[in-house]
Amino acid sequence: MEHLYAKRVQKSGNSDLAELFKLSEQPDIISFAGGFPDPRWFLDEIEEIAHQVLTDKKDIALQYGPVPGFTHVREFVAGRMQEQQMKVTMENILITSGSLQGLDLICRVFLDPGDLIVLEAPTYLGAITTFVSYEAEIASIPADEDGLQVDQLEIFLKNTLRKPKFIYVIPTFQNPTGRVMSLERRKKLIELANEYRVPVIDDNAYGELRFSGEEIPSIKALDTENMVIYLGTFSKIFSPGVRLGWIAADPKLIEKLILFKQGSDQTSSSLSQLLAYEAGKRGLIEKQIAVTCAGLKQKRDLTISALQKYFKDRATWNEPEGGYYVWVQLKDQVDTLKRLTPAVINHKVAYVAGSSFYPDRRGENCLRVCYSLAKESDIDEGIRRLAQAFVNA
Ligand code: PMP
């Protein structure tokens, strides 16, 4: 049937995401690949919550719900955002099936084939795949230790003949680098968004997972003229299996997004929404965040020590203050994508190659090390295997 496929299929040649999910399922492999939470962080109380929801609220939990999500769930989400200094109410919230669906719906509303969008490079592979599937033209602005280089963005916005539809950023504990955009740059980004009237998508999947250092306000919290579209998710603070996220945006935009949500999956799982709400109401999401952050800190420490032990003089890396990822840049010119299959097969270790996070496949000698899922007792050995995989490369 291939000849019947849409043109966009030819452009979406990148199946890295599917590959990496397959890889991380093999039991003898130490995986630093997929951005999965450690299942030991999931709530012990979930069984009791599920029992209660399915007993007391069975009729609602197993039924279709309203397209934008349950009102009390939207209020709960808005309430949590307000606690993080973001000025939103229930009307600003659309519950989605994961934040990746949120991004997909935003693309449906904003993008015609060939439209220009801006992102920081490197960035989240799932986002690149989504943008490519909508046939967007992607402009990459470089990022450094302090995140997106806003000066470069300014030059781009000044000189571009076509106006971008939006700027996509992951300001806090970025995927794949684990870096945080500085406050100064966040403010400048808002200024530029206001000046050039280009919306910013603030993907804050990891923002609540800080285990050291100072809190920085989200881009959404700094938004002065309603130019920021916020993407939130329960995946890293509760469960990715419930597939629950949200968009926070201007109610007029939410209205349009709802139209496409209806045509996509009509509404997000009622059962999932009630589980997340009940866990939140009991204060258990905050508890899970605390457990997750403590676990992540321990794993970050083990990862950094192992990198110092096995990669000293051979690579540079950052020391993340939260989130799941360390970005490792090898000093030798090694193509980490070509090395991936031998690393998995011969050395039983998995990671994601740096080039997967660049729309133009740069970042050859880089790799993303995700430390959230590997067992504490496997981290040193895993990094040792990684080092071996790059010897004589
Ligand atoms: N944004 C970023 C930056 C991510 O890393 C992820 C998942 N790893 C997502 C969005 C999607 O998350 P979900 O669809 O599970 O909410």
From TrEMBL:
- A Gene Ontology MF term for this entry? transaminase activity
Query: Keyword annotations for this protein?
Result: Aminotransferase, Pyridoxal phosphate, Transferase
The yes or no answer to whether the keyword Transferase is present is yes
Which Pfam family, any one of them, does this sequence belong to? Aminotran_1_2
* UniProt-listed Gene3D superfamilies: Aspartate Aminotransferase, domain 1, Type I PLP-dependent aspartate aminotransferase-like (Major domain)
Keyword set includes rRNA-binding: no
Give all residue intervals belonging to the Aminotransferase class I/classII large domain. Answer: 48-386
Example GO biological process: alpha-amino acid metabolic process
Co-factor(s): pyridoxal 5'-phosphate
Record text on subunit structure and interactions: Homodimer.
The similarity annotation says: Belongs to the class-I pyridoxal-phosphate-dependent aminotransferase family.
Matching entries from PANTHER family are given as:
AMINOTRANSFERASE (PTHR42790), KYNURENINE_ALPHA-AMINOADIPATE AMINOTRANSFERASE, MITOCHONDRIAL (PTHR42790:SF19)
Q: Specify the protein name.
A: Aminotransferase class I/II-fold pyridoxal phosphate-dependent enzyme
What is the species listed in this Swiss-Prot or TrEMBL entry?
Answer: Thermanaerosceptrum fracticalcis
